[in-house]
């Protein structure tokens, strides 16, 4: 969990956002689902999409975020924080090539950190306003939107030479190549639609990871990992399940990093070849609807290319393709079918900017989006600015609360353990270890003191100073 709780080293200044506009070579289309939240309100479920490109074309941020359920909080935080962090990457020298993958990986962890902070904020507020009987972790966490919300995220940072990929979950991606007018989706280029690339139990590598966590794969296949029998095995958010299923209490976040739903992104980079024509992202629900149109999974790439060719003369190729797949589905399925489960869908198609010297037929030139339409679910620069300001205010409020706590002091609880509960830590062994190691005993006292007297931002600095004077100790 240490890596997940680390603060991102990417500076954030919302002024950089002014350099970003919607990319003119990218098309997006989404579908919205309305679900009853309670008797008096409905919740709108829609994928979040990003297609922001820097004015100087130094980089672009393309992303598709698929909410797992009716709560969009995790997907909203994901897409906004992604833009906030990546918009600050500097291209002043070549060092960015070695940093972007690390930055993208840290962003996924930072998203979880942000959701964790928001969860604790709401938990503290709820505990202070409700009877103690209702604040038990197993009852409290599922009642918080911040803890229940979850999402899948696929992000691509595109520079003039490389594409940097980071994803978690089940969003599909195709890389379309163009060889003198012949379009193809070739396995010789990176593809992310095969079962082996998705974070599900159909992925052999993922099954091995789950076995190492002592997860019962047969039980997952029959019952799923969550209450809705979902077979996905990695996601952003869903803290209520991650924390409660793997830790002694809601605040024991260290154990959550060993949960099967761990947010551990797959990261990858590849060089843009002259023949690379388009990057396509689609949500799993769109892919599943595609499968229900009597087209086998192995034939989807070739069929999608037919749809793409047909859409090149339309004003919006993403909307054209999504509508075509929808019409096929409804023509082949009666209205009583389970189409209610696949209403919220998303599709993003980005056409690469190629040098004028590239040998490409005129009918296959880079597509240009002349429409200024912002589709439902699309993130804008103004939204990201508001997101930054809102969370800056929230952090200032947290720091103010900590300062108040320091001034008035915390009530330190004496922990008592009885033999009726099997603890996660053998406290007798732990206490003996402290008694036998003076440096470790001092470190324990220091950390305890810091937790009660210092703000979170000061913990790492103080601990680093202590470790420098105690070389026998090492912090992982």
Automatic annotation (TrEMBL):
<dbReference type="InterPro" id="IPR036457">
    <property type="entry name" value="PPM-type-like_dom_sf"/>
</dbReference>
<dbReference type="InterPro" id="IPR001932">
    <property type="entry name" value="PPM-type_phosphatase-like_dom"/>
</dbReference>
<dbReference type="Pfam" id="PF00481">
    <property type="entry name" value="PP2C"/>
</dbReference>
<feature type="region of interest" description="Disordered">
    <location>
        <begin position="392"/>
        <end position="415"/>
    </location>
</feature>
<protein>
    <recommendedName>
        <fullName>PPM-type phosphatase domain-containing protein</fullName>
    </recommendedName>
</protein>
<feature type="domain" description="PPM-type phosphatase">
    <location>
        <begin position="46"/>
        <end position="347"/>
    </location>
</feature>
